[in-house]
Design goal:
Layout (H helix, E strand, L loop, with lengths): L7 E6 L16 H19 L4 E5 L2 H9 L3 E4 L5 H14 L4 E5 L19 E6 L6 E7 L12 H11 L3 E4 L3 H4 L30
Parallel strand pairs: 1-2, 1-4, 2-3, 5-7
Antiparallel strand pairs: 4-6, 5-6
Length: about 210
């Protein structure tokens, strides 16, 4: 991996679009799910500008999409989310990147990810999902042995990991970055956030 032009980079793990968002299969067909996954990932890559982006994936179509969007694609087979992010951070650390911002690819209202790069050298910046359970975005200084712990309860797990590494934690609660899409109810965001970045979705409307 060539050294990025800055000392900060963004890592975006992206699943194969055709296999993404299976939990929405009751309300969206496969083509709609693929379109939604791609549109949200597009939004996250735009939100990372002007920082360099590394896309962690295990799919050639996603790798080609990443390169077309100006990102570096890292194809990794047989590793889970934590392993994929860890490997990308390892490569970026070797390329003298001092801070990595990891953002999930299913954030339809993502913006200004570069703002999360502004942090002290001993500070982890975390954006939880709106339920306070997951870690939608995390900004971590490299070189401290931070272990990524995605999965249920990852927000508290990452907070504990920062403590283990002797790093301070700053929590940023953002309605836009906190809105991810996993369940059918997530397809009905508050009107103040705007519409999902995709056409022809017709999920059931949740009652207000």
């Amino acid at each position: 991996m060539a050294a990025p032009a800055t000392t900060v980079a963004v890592v975006v793990p992206v699943k194969a679009f055709a296999a993404a968002k299976q939990r929405l299969s009751g309300v969206l067909d496969s083509a709609q799910r693929a379109e939604l996954a791609r549109a949200m990932a597009d939004r996250v890559l735009r939100a990372a500008a002007p920082l360099p982006v590394v896309v962690a994936c295990d799919d050639e179509v996603v790798a080609e999409w990443a390169v077309e969007h100006g990102a570096t694609a890292v194809l990794l087979d047989g590793v889970d989310l934590n392993g994929a992010v860890t490997e990308c951070v390892r490569r970026l650390t070797a390329a003298e990147v001092t801070r990595v911002v990891v953002a999930h690819a299913d954030l339809p209202f993502a913006g200004d990810l570069d703002a999360l790069a502004a942090a002290a050298a001993d500070e982890v910046v975390m954006v939880p999902d709106r339920r306070g359970d997951g870690t939608n975005v995390i900004s971590v200084p490299t070189g401290h042995g931070f272990r990524f712990r995605y999965g249920p309860g990852s927000f508290e797990a990452h907070r504990s990991e920062a403590s283990r590494c002797g790093l301070r934690v700053r929590v940023v609660r953002s309605e836009r970055l906190g809105w991810d899409v996993d369940e059918p109810a997530d397809l009905d965001p508050p009107g103040r956030l705007g519409a999902l970045p995709v056409r022809d979705l017709d999920p059931p409307r949740a009652s207000r």
